[in-house]
């Protein structure tokens, strides 16, 4: 009102939710122009040229060095096409203070424009407790509810009230905040049966809120409430805070949530439900194993080992080839963390010793990538010597019997695991200067190769006709135009 009294012809606010919150205080009934001449610029509806111009202006006004802008330039049209497009993300892209760890690739720059987690955290920090409570409620909408959002009008249960109280708000404050946040952070949807419900306006806003929640100790329990099992396994990690976050990871679970997260993951390994197939259960278990092997700190492994008493029994049942089974890497991680009992380690070695001959499986042999292999961690030098002696002795004593067993399960496929294993064994014994054993494996490999010459290919392999495979270079009209037309960003690094 002061602006109007002082002759201002235009009043701007930077965010619609700021205007929505201030609107009751502006008395629009007394100043009809506030309603009649009110306009909103929706950045989601900007044309491609307008988005490119905003991005160009932000970069030229920023402080990025010329060489950085030159490396960004080939990827900026894709950055302008990012959905949702945020002018504030474009501004931050132009400033060194926000891009010190940015990967100057197409993926890195577009991810910065779309996700920009620090930008969203800063925005959420500026909201009041009522807005925090409303967003937390909608984020934590129970997964067993029929609706994919929070029903409107609200019906608060005990869990909802706990979230509201944790945020320092009240049910009335939440109701007012939802109206304020509507259109910017939230949107009202209607189900097929006519039930209205609130959701985040865009998935990236939900993901950014999840990241912000991890910085709020009083709201930490809410983090896992609003995350599906699939999102937990594919978009989070439980690594050390100082380790680099992998691309595609939504958030890093803080240590206070390790126990609850471990309980959630352990539940994924429960026997399949009545209407769940074996394959679905297998896929869930494989996802959990991959998480433990790649996305877990020693602290989280300790929490998970407590939550899943049957973990070791399952890990010791790894198959062949062991280098493709996710269980040995988890055993190695547990051994590094001091969580693998010696008895279990010896059981793993005994199982590998059997597979080394019966399969045969040479996954335990060190090669040029031995630093990455689980068996380099699990085996001592003495263990490795025992394995070599065992494989050598079995081959010399049972070659014909083993050949019959291997050929019984062989096919005529080009890629054969037995031939691969025999090759690695021959090379390994050569490096150990055991020429007699190396020659024996070479001879055995020739016999095996001859034995499978007349075998038909497997069903999966016989459908592949290499002679019919061609490489087609398909270029769309849009790509042809992109190669010849001039880009707005061409002179950005001049």
Automatic annotation (TrEMBL):
Family annotation (InterPro entries): nSTAND3
Novel STAND NTPase domain segment(s): 5-59
A Pfam family it matches: nSTAND3
Domain of life: Bacteria
UniProt protein name: Novel STAND NTPase 3 domain-containing protein
Originating organism: Streptomyces buecherae
Taxonomic lineage from the root: Bacteria, Bacillati, Actinomycetota, Actinomycetes, Kitasatosporales
